[in-house]
């Protein structure tokens, strides 16, 4: 009888350990969950770095958005900058590209952009409220918001032209299936 | 010297950037509340550090948001819910006791109970009160038929 209970307890213990392994094995415990997918993009009010004007989400209503969070002190942000510039030139007539400066000063961001150039609006988010509102977990991060204001996906780390093209096409397909077929690289 | 230069280079390239944005502490009572809440929230780019304890820029941004929410008059639960809505239960350093998280809460307790039961079982098995002395000693095995033992004894007699 005693032996049976020991066996049951051991089997129960092994069962629980297997459950933990099945649930967690193969997942990255450091990966930050992305809970904002499929959620309405949080409204924002930020300042345009180039002209000092107040900019809100309402200003882009009805347009798909590509929102890139970056900082001048962030090495990988420098890597992706040319690709975002390329993306803004390729898709800028169908998708609105927005840069949001994260935990940085206006002077550093201005200096960085004067050196590297920018063809799309860059916003100041002084206390990073917009970044946290969007569930940002570091920079660079790029969010894709469809024309209905729903966050479709985000790209962690420096983006490359292939990923950018795929994400933009996905955005366009959600708003207008025909546009997705013609909205590739010109 | 070289280590210092490497560290400077590393700090300038990672998320641990120098503080640029102006995060200001709140008045003492509100700041204490923000810090206490920050101790319960996990920094998004650190390994097990709270946003109050981490020097990372992301933690600074998150703590600034906690300050803003405290200033807006949000309750502690509303502030925690805000972070859970964005980062999941992962954002909480103490996982809430529901669903699969029960394994985390009850697992260690179950392990202790199993350990105590095992030790108790071992003690009971090897207890000095057991009638060890009263048992009759086992009779010596009859080895007269063992051919190997016979051979050894014969060798010894030579």
Distance between the termini of chain A: 77 Å
The Rg value of chain A, from CA coordinates, equals: 22 Å
User: Which descriptor suits the 3D outline of chain A?
Assistant: elongated
Spell the H/E element sequence of chain B: HHHHHH
User: Topology as H/E string of chain A?
Assistant: HEEEHEHEHEEHH
Give unreliable regions of chain A as ranges: none
Please report the total strand number of chain B as a whole number.
0
Describe the structure.
The complex is a heterodimer of chains A (186) and B (158). A 7-stranded mixed beta sheet of chain A has the order 2-1-5-4-3-6-7. Chain A is elongated and about 80 Å long. Chain A contains 6 helices and 7 strands; from the N terminus they run αβββαβαβαββαα. Chain A starts with a helix and ends with a helix. By secondary structure, chain A is α/β, with parallel strands linked by helices. In chain A, strand 6 and strand 7 (151-156) form a beta hairpin. In chain A, helix 2 crosses helix 5. Chain B has helices spanning 2-13, 28-40, 57-71, 76-87, 101-125, 147-157. Chain B is built from 6 helices and no strands. With 158 residues, chain B is an all-alpha fold. Chain B is rod-shaped.
Summarize this, please?
The complex is a heterodimer of chains A (186) and B (158). Chain A has 186 residues and is of the alpha/beta class.
Layout of SSEs?
The complex is a heterodimer of chains A (186) and B (158).
Chain A: H1 2-24, E1 45-48, E2 54-56, E3 65-70, H2 75-91, E4 96-102, H3 106-116, E5 122-125, H4 129-133, E6 141-145, E7 151-156, H5 161-175, H6 177-182
Parallel strand pairs in A: 3-4, 4-5
Antiparallel strand pairs in A: 1-2, 1-5, 3-6, 6-7
Helix pairs in contact in A: 2-5
Chain B: H1 2-13, H2 28-40, H3 57-71, H4 76-87, H5 101-125, H6 147-157
Helix pairs in contact in B: 2-3
């Amino acid at each position: 009888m005693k032996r049976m209970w020991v066996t049951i307890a051991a089997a129960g213990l092994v069962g629980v350990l297997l459950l933990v392994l099945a649930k967690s094995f193969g997942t990255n415990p450091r990966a930050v969950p992305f809970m904002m997918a499929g959620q309405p993009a949080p409204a924002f009010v930020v300042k345009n770095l180039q002209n000092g004007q107040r900019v809100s989400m309402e200003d882009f209503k009805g347009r798909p958005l590509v929102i890139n969070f970056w900082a001048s002190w962030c090495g990988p942000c420098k890597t992706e900058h040319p690709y975002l510039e390329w993306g803004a030139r390729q898709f800028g007539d169908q998708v609105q590209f927005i840069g949001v400066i994260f935990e940085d000063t206006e002077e550093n961001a201005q200096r960085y952009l004067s050196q590297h150039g920018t063809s799309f609006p860059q916003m100041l988010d002084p206390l990073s409220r917009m970044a946290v509102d969007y569930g940002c977990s570091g920079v660079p991060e790029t969010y894709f918001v469809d024309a209905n204001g729903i966050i479709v996906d985000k790209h962690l780390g420096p983006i490359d032209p292939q990923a950018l093209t795929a994400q933009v096409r996905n955005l366009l397909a959600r708003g207008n299936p025909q546009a997705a077929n013609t909205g590739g690289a010109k | 010297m070289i280590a210092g230069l490497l560290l400077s280079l590393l700090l300038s390239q990672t998320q641990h950037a120098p503080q640029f944005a102006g995060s200001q502490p709140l008045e003492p009572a509100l700041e204490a509340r923000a810090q206490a809440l920050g101790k319960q929230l996990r920094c998004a780019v650190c390994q097990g550090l709270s946003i109050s304890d981490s020097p990372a820029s992301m933690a600074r941004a998150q703590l600034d948001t906690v300050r803003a929410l405290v200033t807006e008059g949000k309750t502690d639960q509303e502030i925690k819910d805000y972070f859970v809505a964005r980062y999941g239960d992962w954002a909480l350093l103490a996982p809430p006791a529901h669903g699969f998280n029960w394994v985390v809460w009850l697992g260690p307790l179950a392990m202790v109970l199993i350990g105590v039961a095992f030790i108790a079982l071992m003690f009971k098995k090897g207890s000095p009160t057991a009638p060890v002395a009263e048992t009759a000693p086992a009779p010596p095995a009859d080895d007269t038929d063992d051919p190997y033992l016979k051979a050894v004894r014969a060798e010894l007699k030579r």
